[in-house]
Write a structure and sequence with these properties.
The structure is a single chain. This protein has 17 helices and 18 strands. It is of the alpha/beta class and 469 residues long. It has 2 domains: 138 residues, no CATH class; 257 residues, Transcription Regulator spoIIAA. The strands form 4 sheets. A 9-stranded mixed β-sheet has the order 10-11-9-8-7-6-5-2-12. The model has no long low-confidence stretch (mean pLDDT 91). 48% of the residues are buried. Helix 1 crosses helix 15 and helix 2 packs parallel to helix 4. Strand 17 and strand 18 form a beta hairpin. The structure holds S-adenosylmethionine and iron/sulfur cluster (SF4). The site of iron/sulfur cluster (SF4) has 11 residues, from loops.
């Protein structure tokens, strides 16, 4: 009998559901929209509580734990069509005059968090949040200045944005952070001109603008990462494969393949277009298409490093993503509007997640600290976070971090997931099957269901529909 099929310990007050209830809940989740990137990890915003003071006091943590930084310089972008038709990321109309005030405020936030940063090795910095390459040069210079003096030995430094706005000046500024490894990350979505027009992206992300950005990165010794969307409404699998082939031909270091998240009621233009919604693929058809694209990238010599990321053979392995999925040994500090932080202080009050105020105005208007929502983890929930974050790396070892003590708590959920063919569990690890990779949102959601239901039931928060993933 496997260890995980023995009677599991039940954390006090977090009652486990029966096998039938778990099967039913899993089926419900698998029939819904699959956000298979697992971008947020546990818990998502609806489960978090408001920060009463708006401040998480500056304090120190174990300086040996490595740290990664997410810097969100602003919330702006300039799509020709609202949200490019599909985008679920925060985006506000561009207010160029707010770029420098925001950067100065972020610099103050970085200084406020100095006890968490000082003398700690920063392994990766990600300037992101959407369209970070829209940041003006004076504002970017303020942010670079705020990080100068911190330990960034050999760190990976990424600038995210739309193909059109990358410039030599930006990359040269970032290179000033020291002997770092630069990378650019941009949305391509598709190379198909018809779709680019439907997205309004023909002037910010045309194939020639993508090529120019890749060439600029090459000239500056920067690595390249591109996003492709698959399962667009009515898109044939052959067209998805064609996009993947063109991405491979460009020679980029990392290709991120995102299954389109679209459902009725999502606040994006395509969700209220009946013609588009009518030709969305079923989950099983979308899984088949994802599997075909995955197979093509593996055949082209790319290695799958996360649920969505494929890395070119011979490319320097990326740092930010794998570390962001390993909260048991790495802290992730977020700065700027909408930024997310996950830290482990050690001791009785251990793991904490917080999110910053999300809009430019609310972030600028807040005093001292910019914290909006917080969540202190129960000890077994720390293991839950490790498990649900770790799934993005396809295999979660069970003998490390909080999971070493708490893995058996999840035995009922893991049994239901294994029965459904989504994971393989043995004494050493939980490994996603190929099907489990596509349905990773449902896997993570079932694992978190106990906490979500319990905390909702005891009134700590309102469980929103399917809000884990
Ligand atoms: C925040 S965007 C950054 C890219 C950059 N702003 C651009 O447009 O080129 C990150 C990526 O998320 C993906 N994305 C956005 N909305 C999505 C959705 N509804 N479903 C799946 N992926 C989505 C897109 O591929 C996008 O390139
Ligand atoms: S895909 Fe990029 S440019 Fe388009 S709305 Fe989203 S963040 Fe803005």
């Amino acid at each position: 009998m496997a260890w995980w099929s023995r009677e599991p310990p039940t954390p006090k007050g977090f009652p486990v559901a029966s096998p039938d209830a778990l099967r039913g809940e899993l089926a419900r989740r698998m029939a819904g929209v699959q956000r298979h990137r697992l971008l947020q990890g546990f818990p998502m915003a609806p489960m978090m509580g408001p920060s009463r003071s708006g401040v998480v006091a500056p304090r120190t943590t174990d300086p040996r734990r490595p740290v990664i930084l997410g810097v969100l310089p602003h919330t702006f972008c300039v799509p020709a069509i609202k949200g490019c038709g599909f985008c679920t990321f925060p985006h506000e109309a561009n207010e160029a005059s707010q770029m420098v005030p925001l950067a100065l405020t972020i610099a103050r936030e970085i200084a406020f968090r100095d006890p968490l940063l000082r003398n700690r090795p920063v392994r990766a910095v990600y300037f992101g949040g959407g369209t970070a390459n829209l940041t003006s040069i004076p504002a970017l210079a303020v942010l670079v200045g705020a990080l100068t003096g911190h330990r960034l030995p050999d760190a990976e430094v990424t600038l995210e944005g739309v193909p059109r706005f990358f410039s030599a000046e930006q990359l040269d500024l970032l290179a000033g952070l020291g002997p770092v490894h630069l990378r650019i990350s941009m949305g391509v979505q598709t190379f198909d001109e018809g779709w680019l027009q439907r997205m309004g992206r023909q002037h910010i992300g045309s194939p020639s603008q993508v090529e120019a950005a890749v060439a600029l990165a090459g000239a500056r010794g920067a690595a390249t990462s591109i996003d492709l969307l698959i399962n667009l409404p009515g898109q044939p699998v052959a067209a998805m494969l064609d996009d993947a082939r063109r991405a491979v031909a460009l020679g980029v270091d990392q290709i991120c393949v995102y299954h389109l998240v679209l459902r009725d009621g999502l606040p994006v233009p395509w969700a209220s277009d009946p013609a588009m919604m009518a030709v969305l693929p079923s989950n099983e058809a979308a899984f088949d298409a994802w599997r075909a694209v995955r197979g093509a990238l593996l055949e082209a010599g790319y290695t799958q490093s996360t649920l969505t990321n494929f890395e070119r053979a011979g490319a320097r392995p990326f740092v930010y993503e794998p570390m962001s999925f390993a909260p048991h040994w790495c802290d992730a500090l977020g700065f700027g509007p909408g930024a997310i932080t996950g830290v482990n202080f050690g001791g009785p009050e251990r793991a904490l997640k917080w999110t910053n105020r999300a809009t430019a105005t609310s972030y600028l208007g807040a005093r001292l600290s910019r914290v909006e929502l917080v969540y202190w983890y129960e000890p077994f929930e720390e293991a839950l976070m490790q498990l649900t974050r770790g799934l993005a790396l396809l295999r979660v070892p069970l003998g490390q971090g909080p999971l070493a003590a708490h893995a058996r708590v999840f035995a009922p959920e893991l049994a239901a997931l294994q029965e459904a063919g989504l994971v393989v569990v043995d004494a050493a690890a939980v490994t996603l099957t190929e099907r489990g990779m596509f349905y990773a949102d449902s896997v993570a959601g079932l694992l978190a269901w106990r906490s979500v239901t319990h905390r909702g039931a005891v009134g700590l928060n309102e469980p929103a529909e399917l809000h884990m993933g």
